[in-house]
Design a protein that fits this description.
By secondary structure, the protein is α+β, with helices and mostly antiparallel strands. It has 10 helices and 10 strands. It is 51% helix and 16% strand. The strands form 2 sheets. Strands 1, 2, 3, 4, 5, 6, 7 and 8 form an 8-stranded mixed beta sheet that branches. It has a two-stranded antiparallel ribbon with strand order 9-10.
C-alpha cells in the first residue's frame, strides 16, 4: 500500500510548512512560557482546512479525506504540539455539532466555530474517571425546560480559555435513567467554576478543572438523543487516536531534523559529532522509529477512509507512535547534550510535550489491551 502524496496534497503540505515556519514558529517560545495561546492562528489556518476541513462542503468544510487530514496533523505536530492539540479540541465539537446538532445549534455554535469566533472544549474526564468513560459520575437532571448539571470535570483542554463546551453527563429524566448524554454548556448562560491546572506538557492548551454546581442548562442544548453519548464517543475514538499518532510523528520528525542538523555542525575532538559511531546509532534509531510510526499512522488513516473496521490499526498507531515519539525526543536530547536541557532551544519542549501523547484518548496500557482483544478475541479489560 502506497502513502505517497499526490500533487495537490504535496502542494498543500508545502504551503502549510511555509506558514508554520513564518507565522507559528516565532510565537511558540513566548506562549509556552506565558501558558497562553495565540487564537488568531486558528482563523488563519482555516485556509488550509485545519478548521472543519473534514466536513462536507455543504456543511462549510472541504470534504477532506483521512489521509490528507493525517498529513495536516503531522505538520501541526511538527510545528508545535500545543497547536495540534488545540486544533483537535476545536474540530471535535465541530464534527459533533455538524452530525448531531439541530439547525438552531448549528447556527449558534457551529457557524461561529468554523469562523473561529468562539472557543470550545470537550469535558469527558473526571477526577475519578479517565479511560473508563462508562463510569462518569457528573449528572444532569431534567427539570421542566432545563437540566441541572452537577459534577466535576478534570484535565479539560482549553477549559481555561473557552466560552462554551460539550459536557458528557449521566442523565435522569422520564425517558433516561442514568445513560450518558451530551450538552452544550455556555459559560455566560450557565456559569460554572473554572480552575486552571498547570501541567508539564502542552503548557499553552489551557488545561482546567470545571466544577458544575446546580448549573442550569437549557433543554435545547441537549445534543442528539438522551442516553446516546457513549456509543457516539466510542465511534469517534479511532479518528482521535490517529490524530494524536500523526501529531506525535510530526514532533518526532522535528526532533530528528534538529538532531541531524546539530550532529552535522557541532564539533568535538576536532570533528563533527555526527562522525562518531554512537551518535550515528542514535540518529539511525530515531529515523527507524519515525518512519515506522508514520507508516502505522497513515495505514490507520487509510483504514478509516476505507470505512472498514479500523479499531486495531488505530490503536496500534496510537500506541506505537506516541511511545516512539517520546523515545525519539529523549534520544534527541542525548544528541544535543547539555544544550538539550535549555529552554532557549525547542528540544526540551518537544521532550515534555511528547510525553503527553501516551495518555489521552486511551493510555498506552489501554491501547495494548484493545489490540490484545482484537488479536485473541478475549478481553482483558475488567
Amino acid at each position: 500500500m502506497s502513502f505517497t502524496l499526490d500533487a495537490d496534497q504535496a502542494l498543500l503540505r508545502d504551503s502549510i510548512r511555509r506558514f508554520m515556519k513564518s507565522e507559528v514558529a516565532p510565537l511558540i517560545a513566548k506562549h509556552d512560557v506565558e501558558r497562553s495561546f495565540p487564537f488568531e492562528l486558528l482563523g488563519e489556518l482555516a485556509q488550509f482546512g485545519y478548521i472543519g476541513g473534514r466536513l462536507p462542503e455543504a456543511e462549510g468544510g472541504m470534504g477532506m479525506d483521512q489521509l490528507t487530514w493525517a498529513m495536516l496533523m503531522e505538520e501541526a505536530g511538527y510545528a508545535w504540539l500545543s497547536l495540534r492539540t488545540m486544533l483537535n479540541i476545536t474540530n471535535g465539537p465541530i464534527h459533533k455539532i455538524a452530525v448531531e446538532g439541530t439547525p438552531e445549534q448549528k447556527e449558534r455554535f457551529l457557524k461561529p466555530l468554523l469562523a473561529s469566533q468562539r472557543r470550545c472544549f470537550t469535558a469527558i474526564s473526571e477526577p475519578g474517571t479517565g479511560s473508563n468513560i462508562a463510569q462518569i459520575q457528573t449528572r444532569a437532571d431534567l427539570k421542566d425546560d432545563h437540566y441541572v448539571l452537577n459534577g466535576r470535570k478534570l484535565w479539560i483542554t482549553n477549559g481555561a480559555f473557552a466560552d462554551f463546551g460539550i459536557v458528557v453527563a449521566r442523565t435522569y429524566s422520564a425517558d433516561c435513567q442514568g445513560q450518558l448524554s451530551t450538552f452544550l454548556v455556555e459559560r455566560e448562560v450557565s456559569p460554572y467554576e473554572v480552575r486552571r491546572v498547570d501541567t508539564m506538557v502542552l503548557r499553552s492548551t489551557g488545561t482546567a478543572e470545571l466544577n458544575f454546581d446546580n448549573v442550569k442548562v437549557p433543554r435545547a442544548n441537549l445534543i442528539g438523543e438522551e442516553g446516546s453519548a457513549l456509543k457516539r464517543m466510542l465511534v469517534g475514538l479511532d479518528s482521535a487516536r490517529v490524530n494524536i499518532a500523526m501529531g506525535a510523528v510530526g514532533a518526532a520528525q522535528s526532533a530528528l531534523d534538529l538532531s541531524i542538523d546539530y550532529a552535522r555542525t557541532r564539533t568535538q575532538f576536532g570533528k563533527p559529532i555526527g562522525s562518531f559511531q554512537l551518535v550515528q546509532k542514535l540518529i539511525v534509531d530515531m529515523t527507524v522509529r519515525v518512519e515506522a510510526a508514520r507508516a502505522l499512522g497513515l495505514r490507520a488513516a487509510a483504514a478509516l477512509d476505507s470505512q472498514h473496521d479500523a479499531r486495531m490499526a488505530c490503536s496500534i498507531a496510537k500506541l506505537y507512535a506516541t511511545e516512539a515519539a517520546h523515545e525519539v525526543a529523549s534520544m534527541a536530547l542525548q544528541v544535543h547534550g547539555g544544550l538539550g536541557y535549555s529552554t532557549d532551544y525547542p528540544i526540551e519542549r518537544i521532550f515534555r510535550d511528547t510525553r503527553g501523547g501516551t495518555i489521552p484518548e486511551g493510555t498506552t496500557e489501554v491501547q495494548t489491551l484493545i489490540v490484545g482483544r482484537e488479536i485473541l478475541g478475549m478481553s482483558a479489560i475488567v
